Amino acid sequence: MKVAAIAGSIRENSYNTLLLETIKERFSEKFDLDIIKIDKLPLFNQAEELDPPEVVKSFKNQIADYDAVLISTPEYNWSVPGVLKNSLDWLSRGERPMIGKPVMVVGASISLMGTLRAQMDLRRILSAPGISANVLEPAQNEVLITQAHEKFDKNGKLTDEATLKVVDRAVNSFYEMVNG
Ligand SMILES: Cc1cc2nc3c(=O)[nH]c(=O)nc-3n(C[C@H](O)[C@H](O)[C@H](O)COP(=O)(O)O)c2cc1C
C-alpha cells in the first residue's frame, strides 16, 4: 500500500508534518508513505482547471498514483488553512483523482480543541461532488492532537504515549479499511 500524505501547514517543523513523519516511521512495515508538498501550487484559477500549470498536473498525477491519502490539518481561524483548501480545489476539477480515494484525516493544534472544527470542515469538503473521497469514519478513529507543543519533544518527536496509542489505533483502522 502506498499512501500520499499532505500536511495542511507549509511551515518548517510544523506539528502536522511531524505527525505525518511519526506515522511514516511507526508504520514503515505496513505501508510506504510519501509526504507530498503543496507549497508550490499556485492559487486555484477556474480558467485553468482543464489545462492547469505543470506543477498542478504533476501534483494531480502524483495523487492519482497512490492507493490512499492521509491529510494532517492544522486549524486556522476555526477551519482548514487556505493552502490546504487550495490544493483540494485543484484536485476537484478537470481530472479528479480524489473520487473514491480512501482518505484519513488527522490534525494537531496548540489549542485545547485539537483541530476539531477544522476536521469537521475538512470532512465536509471531502464529501463535495468533485472530491467524493472515501473518508475513514470518525467514530473510534479521530486523531485530534491538542496542545501539540506539549506532545512533541524538542527534536520534533511525538512522545506522548496516550497520543501514540490513539494514532496507532486509528491508522490501523485506516490500513484495514484500505486493504479490506
Ligand atoms: C492564522 C492562524 C490561525 C490560527 N487559528 C487557530 C484556531 O482556530 N484553532 C486552533 O486550535 N489553533 C489555531 N492556530 C494555532 C495553530 O494551532 C498552531 O499555529 C499550530 O502549530 C499550526 O499547526 P502547524 O504546527 O502544523 O503549523 C492558528 C494559527 C494561525 C497561524
From TrEMBL:
Top-level division of the source organism's lineage: Bacteria
NADPH-dependent FMN reductase-like domain location: 1-133
Family: Belongs to the azoreductase type 2 family.
Protein name (Swiss-Prot/TrEMBL): NAD(P)H-dependent FMN reductase
InterPro entries listed in its UniProt record: Flavoprotein-like_sf (IPR029039), FMN_Rdtase-like_dom (IPR005025), NAD(P)H-dep_reductase (IPR050712)
Organism lineage: Bacteria, Bacillati, Bacillota, Bacilli, Bacillales
Pfam families, A to Z: FMN_red
One annotated Gene Ontology cellular component of this protein: cytosol
A single MF term (Gene Ontology): FMN binding
